[in-house]
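Human: Here is a favour to ask of a fellow structure person. Comparing notes only helps if you start from a blank page. Give me a protein, with the fold worked out from its sequence. Please set it down just below, with no commentary around it:

Assistant:
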Amino acid sequence: MALFYVPNLASGTVLPEEESQHAVKVLRMQVGDTITVVDGVGGFYTASITNPHPKHCTFKITETILEFGKRDYKLHIAIAPTKNVERLEWFIEKATEIGIDEITPILCQFSERKIIKEERLEKIIVSAAKQSLKAYFPTLNPLCTFDELMKKHKASQKYIAHCYENDKKLLQKEIQKASDVLILVGPEGDFSKDEVQKATSLGFIPVSLGNSRLRTETAGVVACHTVAILNQF
C-alpha cells in the first residue's frame, strides 16, 4: 500500500513536493495508479493519480473514510528530553506507532537537554504514523517548563511517574478506560522532590511502571503501551 500524507486536504488534492517526488521518482507511479492518503486528523482516503508530476502530483479521491482508527480515549505524555536526543526520537517514533494524541517536551530541574529540533521530531511523527497506518497524528507541543505545564494541563486523569520510594500506585491498576489521561515522565535524573510535591498537590497521582528501573524513553513507551492495552480490553 502506497500511503501519503497531505495536510489541509480541503485546500486541494495535491501531494506535497516531498511526497510527490517519492510517488513519481521512487515508486514511478503513473496516471490511474491507486494511492492511500491520510490527512493527520482522521481522514483516510483511497485515490488515483491524475497527474504524476514530481513536484506537485495531483490525485482524485475515490473513497473516503472519516475518523479512521478513532480511539475512545485521549493520551498526553509530557516527557523530559533525553541527553542523547536519539532516545527522545525513539520514544516519539514508538509512541506514535502505538497511538498517542499529544506529546509535550518539558524542562525539569534536573534536565540535561534544554533544546530540541521540533521540525525533525515532526518528520519522525509523520513517518511513524504512515508506517503504522495512522490517520490521526499526535500533536507535538512546544518545549515548556514543568511549571508552565502545571498551569495549563486539563486532563481528567493525571499521573506522575517517578523513582522515589514513597507510596505509589501501579499505573495499570489506576487507568480508567475511555478517559483523558496525562502522564508525566521525568529526565535521567528524575523529577526533583519539589516537582513531585507540586504535582501531587495539584492532583497528580504518583505511579510506578513496574519493578524495573527504566530509562526515560523506555518509561514513556511503557506508559503509552499500558494505556493503549488497557483501553482495548
About this structure: DSSP finds seven helices and twelve strands in the chain. The chain has a mean pLDDT of 95. The longest helix spans residues 216-230.
